Amino acid sequence: MSFHVETFGNPDADILLIQMVDDHDLEGMEQEVSAVRELSGKQDFCMKAVRTDRWNIDLSPWQAPAVFGKENFGESAPETLAYLQNEILSGFRLSGKKPKRIVLGGYSLAGLFALWAGCQTDIFSGVAAVSPSVWFPGFTDYLRENRVHADAVYLSLGDREERTRNPVMAQVGNAIRTCFDLLKDTGTDCTLEWNNGNHFQDSDYRTAKAFAWVMGRDDRS
């Protein structure tokens, strides 16, 4: 397991955004950070982009067979969450600059990881799950049995994402509707936004909208 962290924004800000990313996400990170700043009304924040090159392994909460390509899904999400807690967040505590609000977000499988991590700990005051892979086998059942502890949760999906020929991934529309209903039933402040297009469209801007929404809703001190 190896991670690379890039920091954007103000390291001393009271709001910390954490996003698990791959190389494609990093290419659009400057644009995403700029969009978060504009959409949030120029709120001050620090963004920690945590890159992994073992996407299917490091972000999966449990093992599952491949649904595209040949790479199966691993079960290293607990280790990834431990890294965020022990390395990213402990660094803030040691420096005496612990942020007041911490938002975990991500796109695709990183969005699924954010939702899962939000069930594991209460350190995240917000979760921004953008086009999350909630088609992941067993995840909606998991969410029925485990509550997301974050105060605010943003969900989104492209309106063409469920129109795939892949029978597993085609369940994403029904799955995200189920997740939204489960969150509402627990009293979580949440929204479900439908974006135009498929899974691969405007990922940086969609993610910026998610973080900005959570920043605007979350007032926990």
UniProtKB/TrEMBL annotation:
This is Esterase. InterPro entries: AB_hydrolase_fold (IPR029058). It comes from Bilifractor porci. Gene3D superfamilies: alpha/beta hydrolase (3.40.50.1820). It comes from the Bacteria.
